[in-house]
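::Encoded backbone::
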Amino acid sequence: MPSRRSQGARSASCVLLLMFCVGCNQHSDEKYYLITANKQVSYWQLARAGFNDAAAGMKIPVEFTGPDTYDPKAEQDAFQRVVRTKPAGILISPADPELLKADIDAAIAQGIPIITIDSDSPASKRLLFIGTNNYQAGLMGGQAAAQALGGKGNVIVFTMPNQTNLSERLQGYRAALERSPGIKLARVVDIHGDPVVAFDTTQAAIDKREAIDGYICLEALAGKEVAAVLSQNHVTGKVVVAMDTDPDTIEWIRKGVIAATIAQKPYTMAYFGLQLLDDLHHHRLPSLNSNWAQDTHSPLPAFVDTGATLIDRNNVNAFMQAQQRRQ
């Protein structure tokens, strides 16, 4: 017959084991997702790092998913697949906000918290948007372009007009460039998520000897393509304003081919977004269907601005050094 001491030790061990098991399973009902329409680009790999770092700190399971190339319909399919798993919450960057509106609303109706990051779906019932103030980013880029152009010239804009964030950036650019009547928007080109369109359009403008003085890129893919074409054709004196901090984009700034880029904070968007989703899972709102944006007693902001920075030849080396220190 075991002694009282051995019985006590066994009881203590059982309690500790039970506590350990409870701790191991405290997140068994949780899984969070980050969904995008083009997950292989460096911008979204940076967001993935923020998402994973936040998950590691909170010890919760997460998954980063979506198509490998730009495909709004495939993003919708990924979203629908994830919703069927009844996740604890979803971060999504809607490439086509209207396409995803009904799906977001249906997920909210099922009690699944949805937060949009980077690109919004403002007409949907998503809880809030985390990302750049895109109008202000457009103003910033427009001011840089106008200064580099000396207040005059013809420019081409590369964008994807279906995305809310890019439409807001274009509005900011237009507002900034209108202050310089000598600058004209020759045309706005929809690249449909394909950087080859920016490459071919720039090459065609050179071949036809079009009077194009500047190229404005509202998304991450086009800037480095424009710079490559200009460099290959030995064309100088053109102004290129890019978006985001793809390594090639930063290198073209260092070489003087790209005048500037607008740096966003996708790492921060995903990191902070996961923290909010986790908080919403553990401190549930009375209803996800409420109009929190107009509720003066809402516990949620309508918009979290993660900030943006202009990078040009004046600060590109400092930016590169800071990136290297983090590696």
